[in-house]
Amino acid sequence: MEINAHQLKHIKVNKLNESFCVSLVDHKKFEITKGYGNTVIEAINDMHDNLI
Highest taxon of the source (predicted)? Predict the structure, then answer.
């Protein structure tokens, strides 16, 4: 299964050199929490770990 990050409504994805930063954002685009990783999936998992 492929994930198209542009279809995620409350996730903002940024490319940082050779890694990724994802942010959970609210309806006003305010960043709530972030995660980092070598892939988008790793960054989402890191963000999720920060929430737990």
Answer: Bacteria
